[in-house]
Amino acid sequence: MNVPLGRPRLLDRLSNQRLILIGCSVFLGLLFLAALAAPWLAPHDPYLVNLAVKLQEPSWTYPLGTDHLGRCTLSRLLHGARVSLGFAVLIFASSLLIGLLIGTLAGYIGGWVDQLLMRFCDGVMAFPSLILVLGLVGIFGPGLKQVIVALMLVQWVYYARMFRGLIMTLKEKNFIAAARVNGSSHWKIFRTHLLPNILPPLLVIGTLEMGWAIMDISAMSFLGLGVQSPGAEWGAMIHEGKSYIRTNPELMIYPGLLIMLVIASFNLLGESLSERFGVTKQTK
Amino acid sequence: MSLLQLEHVSHRYGNQRFLARQAEQTVLQDVSLTLEAGTCLGLLGRSGAGKSTLGRILLGLERPKAGRVLFNGQDIYDAASKDFRKDIQVVFQDSFAAVNPKLTAGQIIAEPLTNFLGLSPDALDERLGGLMTQVGLSKTDLTKYPNQFSGGQLQRICIARAIATNPKLIILDEAVSSLDMVNKALILDLLRNLKETLGLAYVFITHDVQAAQALSDRFMILDQGQLVGDYPTLRSFSEATDEHVQAIRQAVLAIHPRDRTIRK
Fold first, then answer.
1. N or C: which end of chain A has fewer CB within 10 A?
2. Residue B99: left if φ>0, alpha if ψ -120 to 50, beta else—which one?
3. Per its UniProt record, what CDD domains does this chain match (chain A) (predicted)?
4. Inter-chain contact A180–B61, Cβ cutoff 8 Å?
5. What is the number of domains present in chain A?
């Protein structure tokens, strides 16, 4: 009898991984494209109120039906993707940049600079981030701009911590000492020696954190703190739909499903990237 | 004027933390030495003796807490320009940690060249090719990445990088210690040739007596941060029988098992 060797299983696993990688990338790519092209793709104006057609079943005119004000659900979802994805990217990118800057400074310079910056981070991290964001929004007042600033202010500390650790490990390597001996400026050392070596973990954490950013924005809008009422955004749509949960649950299900799929895709993508690069997972 | 002069160099470690203060530890205490151009100083010591810290201080990477480091009569920590960096280079023990894994051999060796000399692309190419021949590698190796080399080959890349700017002094920080016997002999040969053809001075930091004897003109022993032995010639070192020399000799296993003694 032939004993199956390890080889086919390994191949299976590899192709599975590749499938996840490609599948998630394609899904997210299409979604981003749809978000970009929303004004042309959407069949109706997402803000056009028409009470005559409220709470309709899916039809050829309204592919996913209408909400309680007769607005086209599909159009609102497409326009909502612009807000959810766009601002998630904004929050993610800005907090990543701040975190990279602060973390690199702390890790590279060390000494009291490091101590000072890290104690500040400790202070911020001592609070659950959601509470801190809610507190900040409470101070600034509700609104998309305020939520984004609040999320940014809270998120960067986690990145700073992570980059500090990565930079500190790298800094001890002799090739950094050799670069200094070879007359490279600090900026050149950062560009050619530090950055390329933290890029793989950066990519992995980036994809994992994108999911969180989308979650955060939607959560804030759902609580009525982010995007305000007529605005089309997934979290805000769930918020508006929740009064009709008995009669028209699909008003909540469509945006909820989208949020779930997007976050799951980002997480799966991050996982498979981390396995590909051999980066160990860092949990928040 | 001596090429390199250390005057009463002392160094301590111990981070001053933001709120707490850690106990300080003395690593080097009142170390003074001089080195003439074109000679090799074997700096021996057991692990933890402060050898590598001394190396970092000589390279201008770590300002000592006390004392002066004079290169060509000028204090490298007070110099306005970093010109001395061109003249003092380094070869480390672990060659894989001493090169950026994301760069090719050519990019690694080109780093000091572009920083110090500003050559045209053609001149840079020619210089890189010349350096590779000098260290016994081929020009085609320039496009390879560090993980495509063996430890001995990569150490040659590191040596090429060190000699790229025609320095006057190279710090060899355990440069042959993690190589096998054959590679060790080959690299030592290469270093000896380079010393003669380029007129280089070395500070050869090692715990390996045999390697030190193969290359050095003068020997010093560092123990717990202090210079405890100074032997101006190979002969005086190999014939010395004091406790420090014996302690150093025992720090490395003899090549043949027959000559090994079991230490208590």
1. N
2. beta
3. TM_PBP2
4. yes
5. 1
